[in-house]
Each structure stands twice: as C-alpha cells, then as structure tokens.
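Dear colleague,

Thank you for sharing your sequence with our group. We've completed the structure prediction you requested, and as agreed, I am returning the results in plain text so they can be pasted directly into your records. Please verify that the sequence below matches your submission; if there's any discrepancy, let me know and we will rerun it promptly.
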Amino acid sequence: MSRRTTLLVLALAALPRLIVFPFAENVAGDAVVRSWLAHAWLEQPHLIGASSQGCLQYGPLHLVLVALVEWLTGSEHLAGRLLSLLVGTLSAWPLFALARRLFSDRAAWWSVVVFSLWPLHIQASTTAASEALSGLFVLVAVAAVARALDTGEREVLFAGALSLTVGAAVRYDVWLWVPLLALVVWWRGRSFGRAFVFGAIAASFPVAWLLAHLVDTGDLLFPIRVIDDYHREWFRSEAALWGDREYRLIVLGFWPLTAAVTFTPIVTIIGGVALVRARSGSARWLMLLVLVPTALLSLRGAVLESFVPLSRFTMKELSLFVVFIGAGLAGLESRSRWAAWAGVPMLLTWVPLVEVAARTPWRWANSFRAVSALSLNGDDLRVVAKELRTRAAAADIVAVDVDPRGFDDIQLAFESGLPFRQVARRRAPSFEAFAAPGARWLVLFDGGVMTTAFDGGGWREVVRSGPITLLERAR
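Please find the predicted structure tokens below.
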C-alpha cells in the first residue's frame, strides 16, 4: 500500500471521528471504570498477573495502554478516549488491506467509506471503552492471515498470531477467535505444523492468564466463571423485562438487527448478498469468521442463557462484515454506478437519523443511544455535571450517592471533571475514610442511600435536575 493510499484511508476514517470527538462522553458500559483503574495502575505501576491485581474482570492490556496515554498527556479524563481515537482510526488500514486482497481495490475503498461512516464504530472510537483497541488487533490478525495464506509468508502469519494474543489481553471475547483462526490456517494452508505454531502463539496470553488464576485462586477458569455467572444473572433480569420467549428471539437476531440499524437495512442486504455469494469463493473462510462466532454467541445466549448481547459486542464480526458490504457495493457499481453511489448519501443521512432517534423520548431511544455515533449522558446528569465543573474548586471533595436505577453516579463522578482522588463515591468501599474529612459538595439521587444530613453539616441546594440534587456545604 502506497503512502498516499495509506494517508487517504486513515484520513477518511479520522474525519468523522474527529468531528464527533469534542462532543462525545463516556456513557454506560465500562469506560469510566476502566479509566479509573488505569489511573490507579499509573500511580502504582506493576505487572498484572491476575484479575485480583488491579484489573477486576477486564483484560489488563487496555488499562496499561490507557495509563500510558495518561502519562503522556497528563489527562486522566481524556486518556482512554484518545487511545480509542487513535486505534479506531488505524483500524481502517488492515480493513482496507483485507478487502483489497480478498476482493478488489474498489471493494477496499467502499469498505473504508462504510467503515468511516459506521456510527457504532465512531462511538467506540470516541469513548474510553476497549472495543476499538481489541478490534484493531483482530483486524490486523485477520489481514495478516489473509496475506500469509496468499503468499506463504510465515513471519506474517506468526505476526498475525501475536496480534491476536495481544487482542486477547484486551478483551476475553477475542479468545474465541484463537481456535477459529488456527483452524482457518490449517484448512486453507494445509499445514498442521503452521497451524499448531499459529495457535500456540495466539493462545499464549489466554493460557498464561488461566494458569496465573489457577495459582492465584485455585480455579483455572476463574475469569471465565466470573463473567459467565454475571451474564447468567443479567440474562434472567433481561428475560424478566422483555418476556422469556421474546428475549430469546431478540438474542437470536441481535447481530443482523444491529447490522441493519447501524449500516442501514439496504446496505446490510447488499452485504448479506455478497456474504452468501462468498460461500463458493476464496473468501469463504472470512464468511465463516463472521457467521460462526455470531451463531455460537447467539446460541449461548438464547439456549444456554449465559450471554447477554450488547451492540458493542458485535463489532468484531460486523467489522469483517464491512468487507462484504464493500464487495457488494463494488459489484453493484460495476453494473450500475449510480445505484452504488446512492449508498453514500444513504449512509450520510442515516447517521443523523440514528442520532435523532437516540435523543427523542420514545420507547426505543435507549437502543438507538447504544449505536449512535455521538454518545451523550442524560440531560439530568449533564446539568449537574456542568454545575460541578463550573463551581467546584481544584481541591474540593465531592461525595456522590448511589444511583438506585443504574450507574449514573459513576458517570456523574467522572463527568464532573474533578481528579479521581477528589470524588468520594458511596458505592466505593473506601467511601467513609475518603469523604469523612469534609466534602464540600454532595450529589444525591432520589431513592439513594445518603441523606442531606451527611457528615453532620448543613447543606444548601444548588440545583435539582430530575432525580439528581447537587448540594453545597453551608459556609
């Protein structure tokens, strides 16, 4: 790939992300907790050998990289988002290489255009979640495998395996791709030796991580069991909300539904047709990489009740599906240029339509917020957070109640813009020792666990926004 092509590919991906970045906020998910854990690690750097050593249920590499960006920039609030912006933009490069190798130059350019305007990935690239980072490593691994299968370059193949195990150190859902890609190497390359070495390299982190937990907890599968137990409980609560049968159907159709909502239904159909046609071509193995994880995770949720899908969990499979969309649009362009180019204004108008659906108060608004390009917290939370950013002094301590309806207390504590050590969260075990010396600001939630008599001081109300009240200690 020439330097000019590389720069143009990266510029196409960067432009919409840079437009959104100044306005985006960390919403729901684990982005805020990951940022705090990264900050804590930076204060006491150490080798994370198991979940109990500073990363909780998360993959350790993301936290370390966020901490490195914080060290370079000096911003604990922007570090995670800056990392995502960088890796989200870079992801267009292996995507282009993969699409060009398996299909054509036109398919590669179409893939980059679709990828650049994909609202779900724009959101991942502008928040501190880990999906953009793990997605980059997966795309690099798959692109490397595609090249190695074509050229026979062992060093490229094993570099792809290394990228895959690094991705596995970011997110556990990448682990499923280790045996899948090893089987692809054996099936397409017809070399058991290469497939074995590829699998051994790709599995190096998962194996080391499990053995470390065997030593640390006595349970080899401890990190997997923790997540599995969490998802089982979560599945029961979602099934109770939606209805058991209805929720199982939602889980079964979640991946194609997410594709239709984030790529537009028509563009998704174009990609689906190209995906089906690939079953008899050289890209058949890539088709299986899209379909097999989708089927396994869908059945794990709908049948075993041990997995709750979220839109961000679909991003690895849908990132590869983008290649088939690109191939479909390139094929359509060869027959009707105007029909193919109609997809661009369709995508451009779809993004604001999704944003409108996400901001409008209706039944499905939350579902659209999860896939919109611009992630914003609720208006009530943003009002209080703005007051804190405006009024709180550099040394002020803020005590934050527990949100009984969700995790807005975590979001608000982060969006206050105050340093981590100045925000005392009632949810945290260290709350009493941290807040007792005298918080100046108090954030209460209706139905929470704290009262205005906190710490025995007098308080005056500064602002009330929905269920959230901000109080200041009377001087």
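Summary note from our side: The beta strands are 398-400, 423-425, 441-445, 459-465, 468-473.

Kind regards,
the structure core
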